[in-house]
Amino acid sequence: MDTPLFDGKLVHSQRIIYTPSPFARASLVHLQEVGTLQARSPHASTRQGLASYLFFMVESGSGTLEYEGQTRALRAGDCAFLDCRRPYRHYTGDDLWTLRWVHFYGPNMGAIYKKYQERGGQPSFHAEDAAAYTTSLETLYTLAGSDNYVRDMQICEKLMALLTLLMQESWHPDTARTTAGKRQNLQEIKDYLDTHFAEKITLDALAERFYINKFYLTRVFKEQFGQTVTNYLVQLRITQAKRLLRFSDKNVEAIAQECGLNDANYFSRLFKKVEGTTPGEYRRQW
User: Fold this and answer.
1) How far, in Å, CA of 255 to CA of 250, rounded?
2) Residues 6+ apart with CB under 8 A from 15
3) Following DSSP, what letter does each residue of the chain receive, concatenated?
């Protein structure tokens, strides 16, 4: 298809406005618009109430972003990731900027953006690897302009790769409010759980064993590893239970005990809560 161009007094841009299939709109993270922009004179863009998420990267020049009551200066290599349902405004500086951007949406984007924020993600940041974002946006532009019959699936794949990059950028356990020694203790605790998950483990026992306040342990473990001690322990036990259900002939009671859960009924309820099926049904399915 022809490359859409827009030439005006304010900007020169190349963009593709994309219409996903009904299937993609209902089921996938899908593309709305992707392109590049070269400012020709100072100007501002203001939006709010859009069912969209915006990612853009400053390739050259500088500008300003106003979002969630804060004003942020942006320069080359800086990125922004915004929920466009909220008001935002961005404008170029005197050294007119060049941007790459993508607007996208999906049925689970609200939860994904919330997780990004919970991990410490900011509306703007300086990219650790700007080339990775450039490649991602270039690929999305190429796919949007193609006539591949599975392009909605391919676009979804690339948008998820972009979101993965953003999640990686948001996660900085080295900046958690801990000392180096206590960070090491938390890694020791995680290693201990990996090895001893089949034993009876409580927060009080962990705190006593590693000489750490249990409330501090609860908060900082989640900061460093993305989930609570309890949820991590459940994940380890359920994973081991699935291995035994698939690759052994042990009964549910024996498997529950090997996973550190002596009550088979509680084990079955917990397994169903996590996996959506009972241990017996899981064994038959697999």
Assistant:
1) 6
2) 4, 6, 33, 34, 35, 36, 37
3) -PPPEEE-SSEEEEEEE----HHHHHHS-EEEEEEEEEESS--EEEE-S-S-EEEEEEEESEEEEEETTEEEEEETTEEEEEETTS-EEEEE-SS--EEEEEEEE-TTHHHHHHHHHHTT--SEEE-S-HHHHHHHHHHHHHHHTS--TTHHHHHHHHHHHHHHHHHHHH--GGGSSS-HHHHHHHHHHHHHHHHHTTS---HHHHHHHTT--HHHHHHHHHHHHSS-HHHHHHHHHHHHHHHHHHH----HHHHHHHTT---HHHHHHHHHHHHSS-HHHHHHH-
| C-alpha dihedral, 126 to 97 to 6 to 33, nearest 10° | 10
For the chain, which domains are there?
Answer: 5-171 (2.60.120.280), 180-285 (1.10.10.60)
Bridge partners of 39? 11
CA distances to 44, 104, 105, 164 from 34, rounded to whole Å, are 19, 9, 12, 18
Structure tokens at 101: 């951007």
Nearest to 206 by CA among 270, 177, 195, 241: 195
Task: Tell me how crowded residue 224 is: count the other CB atoms within 10 A of its CB.
Answer: 18
Return d(Cα 282, Cα 286) in angstroms, integer: 6
pLDDT means per 10 residues, the chain with 286 residues, are 57 90 94 94 88 96 94 96 94 93 94 88 93 97 93 97 93 50 69 92 90 88 86 93 93 94 92 93 90
Return phi, psi of residue 144, to 5°: -65, -30
Q: What pTM value is reported for the model?
A: 0.69
| Maximum pairwise Cα distance, the chain | 74
